[in-house]
Design goal:
358 residues; alpha+beta; eight-stranded mixed sheet; three-stranded antiparallel sheet; 9 helices; 11 strands; 20% strand; flat
Length: 358
């Protein structure tokens, strides 16, 4: 691993030189390419520099033990070695994680689809709660959100909502959210005060660039229709809503929230590219392993990944056994503890399988 880290450090230093070269600074494409590459190496470089410094200090402290020291100084050196050894071990683990193969989609924007599943109106209301949770979390991260398509029920819940989150690292943070989310609470429509169980499904897909998924005009069918609101009432007498069907795969994307037919078509194509890319990725993973590679972030749409229990103010992620008793704050967007726990569990799983670059 140390040889690999030294190569990273050498490349980082070389990039620093290149970024000061007038021939590079005057070329926007190369400047952007090298700047991004150096940015991607930054965390590993900083951790390795710190690791080397701690290693040198630790070796010096151990060497001092062989010198003639009075009791007080010997005790100080012993304490320093213990502290430095702890820092050394922590940095070593951090570097193992940093040197794991990076998911090429981690820095991408995401398209999120939330649908009310089992539970009728209550499932749709819970879908709107999940939408609020993700958008508030996105706000806290400094990301932008944009609704691409939505379908409301009569109570104002989302039968379906598709939206984009734009911001660096959005996929790396949200990729473990795909699956079935279960809620246990007394619905607003329940007069007897009984607790009901409902579910909503979440799908998180990295945005696919046009160069990654090329869609030919001959392969799509575009249908237009009038936009509609809650309960199916027409709210637009012009055919601005767009449904795009990818004929070879049968995958469909619809958008009606834009102001014009052209904008709706553009947004529908973004969703379509993401869905095609997601389908291709799942098929490749299935060929590679025969099953999903990790219990964390499997993306299995039928998998119950999390339960939100309102009577006990409890949220439980079943994949990693995490339970928190602060349901309201999580639903208000304070979900970093959940995101971090899932990320750490995924990294630990990869380390256990020996998938780090050594």
């Amino acid at each position: 691993m140390l040889d690999r880290l030294q190569s990273v450090a050498d490349r980082y230093d070389k990039l620093s030189e290149l970024l000061c070269d007038p021939g590079i600074t005057s070329d926007p494409k190369k400047l952007r390419e090298y700047s991004k590459e150096q940015s991607d190496l930054q965390d590993a470089y900083d951790a390795y520099m710190q690791f080397k410094s701690i290693s040198e200090q630790l070796n010096s402290a151990k060497a001092m033990q062989n010198e003639k020291l009075d009791d007080d100084m010997r005790e100080l050196v012993k304490m320093e070695i213990e502290e430095l050894s702890q820092q050394y071990a922590a940095l070593e683990e951090k570097l193992k994680v940093l040197m794991m193969p990076k998911d090429p989609n981690d820095d991408k924007n995401v398209i999120v689809e939330i649908r009310g599943a089992a539970g009728g109106d209550e499932a749709a209301l819970f879908a709107s709660d999940l939408y609020r949770m993700y958008t508030r979390y996105a706000d806290a991260q400094g990301w932008k959100t944009e609704i691409l398509d939505a379908s409301l029920n009569d109570l104002g819940g989302f039968k379906e909502i598709i939206f984009m989150i734009t911001g660096k690292g959005a996929y790396s943070k949200l990729k473990y959210e795909s699956g079935a989310h279960r809620v246990q609470r007394i619905p607003v429509t329940e007069s007897g005060g009984r607790i009901h169980t409902s579910t909503s499904t979440v799908v998180v897909m990295p945005e696919a660039e046009e160069v990654e998924i090329e869609i030919h005009d001959a392969d799509i069918r575009v249908d237009t229709f009038c936009s509609s609101g809650a309960g199916g009432q027409s709210v637009n007498t012009t055919k601005s809503a767009v449904r795009v069907t990818h004929v070879p795969t049968g995958i469909v994307a619809t958008c009606q929230d834009g102001k014009s037919q052209n904008s709706n078509k553009e947004q529908a194509l973004r969703v379509l590219r993401a869905r095609i890319s997601d389908k291709m990725r799942e098929e490749e993973e299935a060929k590679y392993s025969g099953e999903r590679k990790s219990k964390v972030g499997t993306g299995d749409r039928s998998e119950r990944i999390r339960t939100y229990n309102f009577p006990q103010s409890r949220i439980t992620d079943h994949r990693i056994g995490l339970t928190l008793h602060r349901l309201e704050t999580v639903l208000n967007g304070d979900m970093e503890e959940v995101v971090s726990a899932l990320t750490i569990a995924s990294q630990s799983d990869l380390l256990d399988k020996g998938e780090a670059v050594m």
